[in-house]
Each structure stands twice: as C-alpha cells, then as structure tokens.
Amino acid sequence: MIGILLTKIRMFIRNPWTFIIFTVMSIGFALIIGGNGAATTISVPIYAEDNSVKGSTLEKVLKEDEAFRFNWLKEEEEMLEQIENGKAEVGVILRDTSYQLIVGVDSPNATMIEQAIQRAYRAHNLETALLEVSATNAEEERVSVLEAFDKSMNIPAFEMETTSFRSEDAVIYDNTFQTLFGFTLFFVIYTIAYKLQPILVEKRDGIWDRMILSPVRKWEVYVANLVYSFIEGYVQIVIIFCIFRFWIGVDFHGKFLEALLLITPYIFSIVALSILFTAIVKNVQQFNAIIPIIAVSMAMIGGAYWPLEIVESKILITISKINPLTYGMEILNGVVLYGYTLEDLLFPISILVLMGVVMTGLGIHLMERRHV
Amino acid sequence: MLELDGLSKKFKQFYAVKSLNMFVERGEIIGLLGPNGAGKSTAISMISSLAEPTAGDVRYNNKSILKKPGEFRKIVGMVPQEIALYTDLTAEENLQFFGRMYRLKGSILKKRIQEILDLVGLADRKKDVVQTFSGGMKRRLNIGVALLHDPELLIMDEPTVGIDPQSRNYILETVKRLNKERAMTVIYTSHYMEEVEFLCDRIYIMDQGNLIASGTNEEIKRILSSEKTISIKSDQLNEQFIAMLQEHPLVNRVMSTDKEITLMVAKEVSMFGDLTKLAETAGIELTSVHNKTPTLEDVFLHLTGRALRD
Ligand SMILES: Nc1ncnc2c1ncn2[C@@H]1O[C@H](COP(=O)(O)OP(=O)(O)OP(=O)(O)O)[C@@H](O)[C@H]1O
Ligand SMILES: [Mg+2]
C-alpha cells in the first residue's frame, strides 16, 4: 500500500498540472466573481435633514451596524444622484422623529435596511424619553441614567437565539464566502475524481491484473487509491483557503481551522461518489465525459454558483437534498457565517459520512462484480 | 504440474473457449497457437486465475486453483498481451513499483532490478521514461516485470506482437535461456508458428475456441501423414499451368506465388510424370520439383481450410 502511495506521489511530482490548474481556477473564479472581500458590506447613502440627528444615538447605532455601511452625505441631491446612477440601491433621509426610504431598485436589502433604521430610531426614542423623564433631576443623576442606558444597550434584556439550522428567517448572504466556498467545493470534485481515473487505466492496460496476481491484497489497492484521492482533494482545499486567509486577507470570522476540519466529510463523500462512477462507467472515455456533467450539475443544484435560498423550485430543492455539495456548503456557511458548532452541524456531517460509506461500498462491490 | 480439465468460457451466447483440455509438465515450454480471436488470451486469463471459467477446472499439483489461487499465484509470472506498465515512469521505477507489490525491499529489490534489467537488455535505458521506449523495449520490460519474483511458471501472451526482428530474437533467446538455465516452465501464446516451432516442446492449436490439434512438433505434423506437399519452381509460371493443376483430379490444394507453386496431394500419389506433361502443354520449363516437409502452417491449413494469418 505504501508502495502504491509512493508511486502516486512520484507521478504527481512528475505531472502536477491538472492539480495546479484546478487550484488556480478555484482561486481565480472566487476572486473574480466574489470580489476581494473588502467591499462585501453594502454601502447605503444617508442624509440627515435635521441637524439634531448628527451626533445623536441615531448616528451612533447606525455606525455600528455590521451589515450595512451608512455613507453620510451633505446634500440630498448627492444621494438622489447616486440612486439614479444605480450606484446605490436604497437611500435614507433622516429627520428628528421620522425617516424616509428612497428605493431605487426593489431589492431584499431595502427591507433589511429599513429594519436597521427602525432599530436605530427605537434606541434613539428610548434615550430621548429617558432624558425627558430625568429632566427634572440633577445633572449627576442624568449622567448616571444615561450610563445605565448605554449599558443596557450593550446587554439586551432578552436574547433571541436561532437554533433550528434550517430557519428561514435568518439568511446571511456574503458574496465573498459564497463564491469562495462554491468554487472550491466545485473544482475539488474534478481533482478528486480524476485521481481515481488511473483505476480504469490500470484495468484497461492489465496493470490491475498484475497487482491481483501479486501478494498485495485488493483492499490495499483500493484503500491506497481512495486515500490518495482524498489527500489530494484536501490539500487543494487547504491551499485555497490558506491563500484567501493569509494572502488575500479574508478572515473566516475566526473559524478558519474549524472550516478546514469540518469539510473533511464532504471530501470523503466526493471520493466515494467518484469511486461509484468509476465502477459504473465502462471505460476511461466515458469517465472523462461524465465527470464534468456530474460536477457542474452538482454545483448548480447544490448551491455552489448561487445560494440555494433563492431557488424556489420544489423539485430542485428536493434533489439538492441528495447532493453532497449541498451539505458541504451548509457546513462551510454554517461554521463561518453563522458560527455554528460541531453539534449544530451534526446533521449535514452525518449525511455526508453516511453517503460516503454507502457509495464506497456500492462502488467497490460493483467494480468487483464486473471484473470477474 | 498444471492441468486444464474441460475449461470453458462463455460470453453471452458464444464460447470464447470450449472444453479445453491441456497439461503442462515441469520444465516444458508449451506453445498455444491460434489465429486472432481463437480464444488464446481468454484461456490464458483462466489459467492464470484472473478470470473465472464458465465450466471446467484448472489444477496445479492436483489442487484446484479456482477457490484458493493464493499458492499458485506466487509461482506464476504473467506477461500480458498489452503493455501493462506505467508509461509515465522510468523502467527502473516500474520495476521498483511491481517489486514492492511482490514485497521485495531495499538491497534485495535493488539487486533483483539490476538482474532483470541485464536479462532483458535495458540496463543502459533504466533511467528513461517508458513512453520514450520503442515497441520492442516496452515488450522486453513487460516481460522483465513478470520475472521479478523469479516465477516457476511463466505465462506469455503474444510477447512479440508488432516488434522488430532483433527484439523478437532477443526475446525468444531469453525465453529459451530461462527455460534451460532456471528450469522455468513456460506457456507461450502466439500466432507465429515459426516462434512456436522454434521454442516449444509441445504445441496446442486453437481455432474459434476449440482445440483442434495437440502434441509435439512431429506429432502434429504427422496429422498430415495422409498428404504430402510438393513444391514446384519455375521462372515462367503462367495462368494456364495453374488452371490445369487446379483441375487435376489428384491435386487437393494449390497455392501459388510468382515463382513457386505448392501442391497438396495424397501421400501415395506420384505427380512427377503428370507435371512434366502439363508443363510441356503449357509451354514452360520447370526449374525444380521436390517434396517438402510440412510446416505447422500446412497443418492449420489442412485442419481448417484457412491460413493461420490473413
Ligand atoms: N470480455 C469479453 N466479452 C465478450 N467477448 C469477449 C471478451 N473477451 C474476449 N471476447 C471474445 O472472445 C474471443 C476470443 O478472444 P481472445 O482475446 O481470447 O482471442 P485471442 O486468441 O487472444 O486473439 P488475439 O490473437 O487477437 O489476441 C473473441 O471473439 C473476443 O471477441
Ligand atoms: Mg490475445
């Protein structure tokens, strides 16, 4: 088994080009389509009609918003211009006690922006009310009331937590991660599948027969092939993620290592899927023809190109449930964007492991039955 | 040593090999001769335990190898019909790979690789990638790999197809040497009867899945005992003469080339007088007329009515 692995590594060193090409393609596509991570928060032009807004809690709360970057403008015209030119989707005009949303393009962002604005006004109104109540009191007390208020802003009285993984209410869509994860999981299918193609070549050329006649046990041959394909796929993902993390500077919301660790079941399931197809096809040509079809359709159905949340077709959603890539995306998004723990992700992980075991078993079984 | 008993292989509705009976004694070189599609490779893969027979049995030292091929596989070296090598690797690396498959390691493996390279005459090309090899060199390495574990029985499936005469002679000499010096038993498949005639102690001839003749060279040729072959040479051969021979009641078969005609006639027939008369009628002069010793080609022609090669 070590001998087989060593030879595979030797051949890899002699001809690493397919690996390099697929790695570069993943990185390239993720960079071009996903942007470089700096401009992922949406910029919203904002104009304060009443001067009192400036420097108030309203401004403070909006500045702290994580999803949107509010761009404070001096002129109302400037904002309208931006919306007309399509530079911004939505603009906001703030007044002391009311606000106005100017919607250029009707996008889901409008609702979310409005929610952010409303949150800010609630805080602002609350503060004003508090100040009024304490208006009669001495200066000292007023300060301490305000301090208490500030504190309670940071520590909300009650916390809402989303525990259901498939909850529809909280969708975080981040283009950088969407494309990075999508293209990584997509291209790695090629790397993994093509590493099992030698099995077909070896069978065609009689090398397999030579191994069967030798004292090497058949499971060693299979394990060596599977392990090698797994390693190469994994190394590719590690390289891509490292480049994004350390070179391009995409922070994985502090979940870099977790992401790398929890994606292993996905790789396992793709290795298994590949061995299954290796067993089903008749020859190398068929294999080469079928792999791109599988990879592309899996990427489309599994949400590698676009988020599954925008897919409405019931049929596609149902099909996506048997697609390993769906769960791979779920794991990566879950870990990095939603900050899920291993426990929260137990479902997709178990599905992938189960798929992996079943498909490996089936693949090897079919291959054995065909050969004799 | 080895015994095949009614070995058959059926693909869908047709038999690639049908009730093949065969035996191999230790130290023999056995030839398996037949045209394309005769079922040689199919027979070979059943003998070497790679394919499961539809019916029949293969016995090694009186034990069936079908259920437990382990012991048998240890002593078998198999040279497949295709080049079963990693073409991206060098000759040496290929030998290393397959050597490791046979659990050879370290200095023993190194020594063995050198011996094999010397044996197949590739020592000076060991660092070259197989892709750059000529057909003959690939064939030689293909044989070398099968010899790594020093097998008792070497099974070779058409090891000389499509290569230059030099490499071919080298391979034939090597097989003879292995047989003589190391008492290696060999099963040699081919559709060249010169090779088989040169190498083999006993020969099995297959056609369309059936065994049509077997025995030593002489025994097989004795199949032709009822017929003899007459070779006629002349510089002036013409259509008229050939046509007259074909119509002659005593002539069974006529084959002609530019300057030579081969006839097959019953053994007791004397054609000499008739030939002189016919030549006179056709107005040609014969350079020579003589009885030829039959070749395996003639035997195959006799048995099947077809030439061994197209
Ligand atoms: N896996 C298979 N499925 C169906 N038919 C097969 C299979 N393998 C071989 N055959 C058929 O069995 C017959 C014998 O094939 P085989 O390869 O044994 O011939 P051969 O004597 O080795 O010929 P050659 O000299 O061309 O190598 C052929 O007609 C071939 O088409
Ligand atoms: Mg053959």
From TrEMBL, chain A:
<keyword id="KW-1003">Cell membrane</keyword>
<feature type="domain" description="ABC transmembrane type-2">
    <location>
        <begin position="142"/>
        <end position="370"/>
    </location>
</feature>
<dbReference type="Pfam" id="PF12698">
    <property type="entry name" value="ABC2_membrane_3"/>
</dbReference>
<feature type="transmembrane region" description="Helical">
    <location>
        <begin position="180"/>
        <end position="201"/>
    </location>
</feature>
<comment type="similarity">
    <text>Belongs to the ABC-2 integral membrane protein family.</text>
</comment>
<dbReference type="InterPro" id="IPR047817">
    <property type="entry name" value="ABC2_TM_bact-type"/>
</dbReference>
<feature type="transmembrane region" description="Helical">
    <location>
        <begin position="12"/>
        <end position="33"/>
    </location>
</feature>
<keyword id="KW-0472">Membrane</keyword>
<feature type="transmembrane region" description="Helical">
    <location>
        <begin position="222"/>
        <end position="248"/>
    </location>
</feature>
<keyword id="KW-0813">Transport</keyword>
<dbReference type="InterPro" id="IPR051449">
    <property type="entry name" value="ABC-2_transporter_component"/>
</dbReference>
<dbReference type="InterPro" id="IPR013525">
    <property type="entry name" value="ABC2_TM"/>
</dbReference>
<feature type="transmembrane region" description="Helical">
    <location>
        <begin position="287"/>
        <end position="306"/>
    </location>
</feature>
<feature type="transmembrane region" description="Helical">
    <location>
        <begin position="345"/>
        <end position="367"/>
    </location>
</feature>
<dbReference type="GO" id="GO:0140359">
    <property type="term" value="F:ABC-type transporter activity"/>
</dbReference>
<keyword id="KW-1133">Transmembrane helix</keyword>
<dbReference type="GO" id="GO:0005886">
    <property type="term" value="C:plasma membrane"/>
</dbReference>
<keyword id="KW-0812">Transmembrane</keyword>
<protein>
    <submittedName>
        <fullName>ABC transporter permease</fullName>
    </submittedName>
</protein>
<feature type="transmembrane region" description="Helical">
    <location>
        <begin position="260"/>
        <end position="280"/>
    </location>
</feature>
TrEMBL record, chain B:
<keyword id="KW-0067">ATP-binding</keyword>
<keyword id="KW-0547">Nucleotide-binding</keyword>
<feature type="domain" description="ABC transporter">
    <location>
        <begin position="2"/>
        <end position="233"/>
    </location>
</feature>
<dbReference type="InterPro" id="IPR003439">
    <property type="entry name" value="ABC_transporter-like_ATP-bd"/>
</dbReference>
<dbReference type="Pfam" id="PF00005">
    <property type="entry name" value="ABC_tran"/>
</dbReference>
<dbReference type="InterPro" id="IPR003593">
    <property type="entry name" value="AAA+_ATPase"/>
</dbReference>
<protein>
    <submittedName>
        <fullName>ABC transporter ATP-binding protein</fullName>
    </submittedName>
</protein>
<dbReference type="InterPro" id="IPR027417">
    <property type="entry name" value="P-loop_NTPase"/>
</dbReference>
<dbReference type="GO" id="GO:0016887">
    <property type="term" value="F:ATP hydrolysis activity"/>
</dbReference>
<dbReference type="InterPro" id="IPR017871">
    <property type="entry name" value="ABC_transporter-like_CS"/>
</dbReference>
<dbReference type="GO" id="GO:0005524">
    <property type="term" value="F:ATP binding"/>
</dbReference>
